[in-house]
Amino acid sequence: MTKQADLKLNVHGRVLVAAPSGELDHYKAERLRAQIDSTFEKSSCRHILLDMGGVSFMDSSGIGMIIGRYKKTELSGGRIVIANMSEPISRLFDVSGLSKIVSRAESAGMAMHMLGGSFDE
Question: 10 Å Cβ neighbour count for 55?
Protein backbone atom coordinates (compact mmCIF):
# COMPACT_ATOMS: atom_id res chain seq x y z
CA MET A 1 0.00 0.00 0.00
CA THR A 2 1.20 3.48 -0.84
CA LYS A 3 -0.02 6.25 1.44
CA GLN A 4 0.38 9.96 0.98
CA ALA A 5 -1.09 12.42 3.47
CA ASP A 6 -4.35 12.63 1.55
CA LEU A 7 -4.37 9.55 -0.69
CA LYS A 8 -4.16 5.80 -0.09
CA LEU A 9 -3.35 3.60 -3.09
CA ASN A 10 -3.64 -0.20 -3.17
CA VAL A 11 -3.36 -2.62 -6.07
CA HIS A 12 -5.70 -5.61 -5.96
CA GLY A 13 -5.08 -7.74 -9.03
CA ARG A 14 -6.08 -5.60 -12.03
CA VAL A 15 -7.79 -2.93 -9.88
CA LEU A 16 -6.11 0.17 -8.48
CA VAL A 17 -7.99 1.32 -5.38
CA ALA A 18 -7.51 5.04 -4.80
CA ALA A 19 -8.93 6.52 -1.61
CA PRO A 20 -8.48 10.30 -1.37
CA SER A 21 -9.40 12.17 1.79
CA GLY A 22 -10.23 15.73 2.74
CA GLU A 23 -11.06 18.29 0.09
CA LEU A 24 -10.68 17.41 -3.59
CA ASP A 25 -10.14 20.89 -4.96
CA HIS A 26 -7.82 22.68 -7.39
CA TYR A 27 -4.99 22.56 -4.88
CA LYS A 28 -5.09 18.76 -4.53
CA ALA A 29 -6.55 17.50 -7.82
CA GLU A 30 -3.36 17.76 -9.89
CA ARG A 31 -1.22 16.07 -7.22
CA LEU A 32 -3.74 13.23 -6.80
CA ARG A 33 -3.95 12.83 -10.58
CA ALA A 34 -0.17 12.46 -10.82
CA GLN A 35 -0.02 9.94 -7.95
CA ILE A 36 -2.88 7.83 -9.33
CA ASP A 37 -1.50 7.89 -12.88
CA SER A 38 2.01 6.97 -11.76
CA THR A 39 0.80 3.94 -9.79
CA PHE A 40 -1.65 2.92 -12.55
CA GLU A 41 1.05 3.07 -15.24
CA LYS A 42 3.62 1.13 -13.17
CA SER A 43 1.17 -1.66 -12.35
CA SER A 44 -0.76 -4.19 -14.42
CA CYS A 45 -4.04 -2.50 -13.48
CA ARG A 46 -6.81 -1.93 -16.00
CA HIS A 47 -9.45 -0.58 -13.63
CA ILE A 48 -9.67 2.15 -10.99
CA LEU A 49 -11.89 2.02 -7.93
CA LEU A 50 -12.15 5.55 -6.55
CA ASP A 51 -13.28 5.31 -2.91
CA MET A 52 -14.66 8.74 -2.04
CA GLY A 53 -15.63 7.88 1.55
CA GLY A 54 -13.00 10.21 3.01
CA VAL A 55 -13.71 13.17 0.70
CA SER A 56 -15.50 16.03 2.42
CA PHE A 57 -15.66 18.45 -0.53
CA MET A 58 -15.17 18.30 -4.29
CA ASP A 59 -15.22 21.06 -6.91
CA SER A 60 -14.84 21.13 -10.70
CA SER A 61 -11.14 20.25 -10.41
CA GLY A 62 -12.16 16.94 -8.84
CA ILE A 63 -14.61 16.35 -11.67
CA GLY A 64 -11.83 17.00 -14.17
CA MET A 65 -9.54 14.59 -12.35
CA ILE A 66 -12.21 11.87 -12.48
CA ILE A 67 -12.89 12.46 -16.20
CA GLY A 68 -9.18 12.13 -16.93
CA ARG A 69 -8.97 8.84 -15.04
CA TYR A 70 -12.10 7.65 -16.88
CA LYS A 71 -10.32 8.30 -20.20
CA LYS A 72 -7.16 6.56 -18.98
CA THR A 73 -9.04 3.41 -17.97
CA GLU A 74 -10.99 3.42 -21.24
CA LEU A 75 -7.70 3.45 -23.17
CA SER A 76 -6.51 0.41 -21.19
CA GLY A 77 -9.75 -1.46 -21.87
CA GLY A 78 -10.86 -0.99 -18.28
CA ARG A 79 -13.37 0.94 -16.22
CA ILE A 80 -13.56 3.31 -13.30
CA VAL A 81 -16.12 2.89 -10.52
CA ILE A 82 -16.68 5.43 -7.76
CA ALA A 83 -17.76 4.24 -4.32
CA ASN A 84 -18.87 5.76 -1.01
CA MET A 85 -19.93 9.20 -2.22
CA SER A 86 -21.51 11.57 0.27
CA GLU A 87 -24.86 13.10 -0.66
CA PRO A 88 -23.38 16.48 -1.74
CA ILE A 89 -20.73 14.80 -3.90
CA SER A 90 -23.35 12.46 -5.35
CA ARG A 91 -25.45 15.49 -6.36
CA LEU A 92 -22.40 17.11 -8.00
CA PHE A 93 -21.74 13.80 -9.76
CA ASP A 94 -25.29 13.87 -11.19
CA VAL A 95 -25.38 17.59 -12.06
CA SER A 96 -22.00 17.42 -13.83
CA GLY A 97 -23.12 14.54 -16.04
CA LEU A 98 -20.46 12.18 -14.66
CA SER A 99 -23.18 9.71 -13.70
CA LYS A 100 -23.82 9.15 -17.44
CA ILE A 101 -20.30 7.84 -18.07
CA VAL A 102 -18.90 6.64 -14.71
CA SER A 103 -20.44 3.85 -12.66
CA ARG A 104 -20.96 4.21 -8.94
CA ALA A 105 -21.39 1.82 -6.06
CA GLU A 106 -22.53 2.24 -2.48
CA SER A 107 -19.44 0.52 -1.08
CA ALA A 108 -15.90 -0.31 -2.10
CA GLY A 109 -16.78 -4.01 -1.90
CA MET A 110 -19.65 -3.56 -4.35
CA ALA A 111 -17.40 -1.53 -6.66
CA MET A 112 -14.72 -4.22 -6.55
CA HIS A 113 -17.35 -6.82 -7.43
CA MET A 114 -18.50 -4.67 -10.38
CA LEU A 115 -14.91 -4.63 -11.63
CA GLY A 116 -14.57 -8.41 -11.35
CA GLY A 117 -11.96 -8.15 -8.62
CA SER A 118 -11.56 -9.08 -5.01
CA PHE A 119 -9.91 -7.52 -1.98
CA ASP A 120 -8.29 -10.94 -1.36
CA GLU A 121 -5.97 -10.54 -4.36
Answer: 22
